[in-house]
Amino acid sequence: MLRALPRLTPLLLTTTLLAMAQAPHPTPPIAKKEPRVFELHGDQRVDEYFWLRDDKRQNPEVIAYLEAENAYTAAVMAPYKALEDKLYKEMLGRIKETDLSVPYRYRGFFYYSRTEQGKQYPIYCRKQGSLDAPEEVLVDLNQLAEGKPFMALGAFAVSDDGRLLAYTTDETGYRQYRLHVKDLTTGQLLADTAERVTSVEWAADNKNLFLVVEDPVTKRSNKLVRHTLGGATTEIYEEKDELYNLGLGRTNDRKYLIALSISSTTSEVRYLPSDRPDGEFRVLFPRVDGIRYFVEHRSDEWFIRTQDGGKNFRVVRAPVADPSKANWREFVPHNPKVKIEALNLFTKHAVLETREDGLEKLTVFDLESGKSHVIAFPEPAYTVGGATNVEFDTTKFRYAYESPITPRSVYEYDLETRRQTLLKQNEVVGGYDKTQYVTKRLFATAADGVKIPLTVTYKKGLKRTGKNPTLLYGYGSYGISIPDNFSSNRLSLLNRGMIFAVAHIRGGGEMGEEWHEQGKMMQKKNTFTDFIACAEFLIREKYTSPAHLAIQGGSAGGLLMGAVVNMRPDLFRVVISQVPFVDVMNTMLDATLPLTTGEYIEWGNPNEKAAYDYMRSYSPYDNLKPGRYPAMLVITALNDSQVAYWEPAKYVARLRTLKTDRNLLLLKTNMAAGHGGASGRYDALRETAFYYTFLLTQLGIEK
Questions:
Q1: Regions in the chain scoring below 50 on pLDDT
Q2: Of 575, 594, 596, nearest to 584 (Cα)?
């Protein structure tokens, strides 16, 4: 039995796992039970698998269990290795492996990244003055990744004089970043370093760096410090409220440093002239519960995007000398049907990114004439937003556009002439004809009558037989809108006759701030019932059937997967649950874990009985029961700092003892990655090929 594995020698353990992988009829590992009782508000919860939690990720017994699950997964999927390899090759074959991003200009240099065939990571470069100039390599992640199973780039900030680069790297996937400072004139790294850095900005003097660092236990970004190169590090401000995180930036005109304290409902801005690094950050407006605001600067005037006046934001202008509300001038009024999501500010123009009826729009304002116009997009479902726009004194605005059938395209738009130029559209190698595919925006009706947007994509010519294999994706948390984007990988599903659908359910932000509020806290179950309504709509409209319907979600979307499967296990054939937040009660009752306290205003605080009872009623781990469940692939990563590996591991261990069917239940743990999975692009593609193999074979598609 598994419980004996930790007492085996490494050689015997390896032999045992190998035998499991080679067995003709592999059997899943069974985790031992060590019941632990938790009691609160008069309620008892028994957790038989709490022992799987290991904060240091070094317990031999825990590692052995995860490895045994991986061996079982490998053994079960081994017969389909040819399909997995085929999927990997065809997806890789659509990617332009040696490629170049769209260069952008900043203070006399053109910056870009490029990839080379056979190399896992991008190379970050620049050229001075002209794209014909010699290339200067700033950071080659392939070199940094040598000998390491994981590598990710975080911050990337060049000093105003172009001589220094501050950047951060994560070598484990735990999203714990270390600061590096590189002298670009010599190519040498300076001795200046810092740990747990989450934000980086230069002062205008090219000598002082401002950093935000995180708490070593909770990973909450909570301290703002100033570091003088070659000198001292001084703490400037500590955000002590556990509901808030700190962020750091500079206004687009580079005149001010902005330190933002933000929770999911409230924010507060501190500002400092970037040419006065020894000065004191001042609070623009003290935080007011329930009001978030964000700022940009132009000509001694603040442009303030604020919820003071409406949940979906408005924009006001105020003089820097006295920005009090008495001096506010309305620039864009609040509209309950239009959410203002971002403000891009330039010398003569402003570009607002808004969302209306679930679709994003770009509105251009001429700040001198006061006139405005909207940039129109023709497709029924798409995603669009500002690209890299770092120059302030310009009449050119870059945006990125894509749809489920249109590859990502970067345009440069002339804010005065309205002429737009396509700078780059991601190439689908081997040829791609978007006219051979169809994407639609549909609406399902929720249990309470609310219309839920649903994006559906498939290959032209598909007939709705009621038996079409379908993958329905969902998220629905934090006010995050799921983009209707393009994926060349997804063509491997569409070309095999699959339908891909996205449920834009409440809890997300697709229909404005109210959409988020209707799917959080004590209304969280709307998220789950909305998703079920979308599935039932697809079945009723003869797109698919329960026997042909697969669902997918990750992180908070993994919570969604667990909740809807507990509620309606009969409705789905296959589930792919990635880094799922399924152990809601244990996690939200442990304030030492990353993210917990800051999310009381997203999920509720279970130390309060009403919130406890409500969360207890839907927590996937706590609501598993005997019965039939769909085939399920559960994905996790050992170094995940956002949803710890033990949540999905415990979930699978308990479900194995309760399910009464013979459908597959697989747990796959990446032992050298974090929340986002593998960091190398080829490794990530391998992971996708594996997920797709499970999906297709469980739906009876094995070609």
A1: 1-23
A2: 596
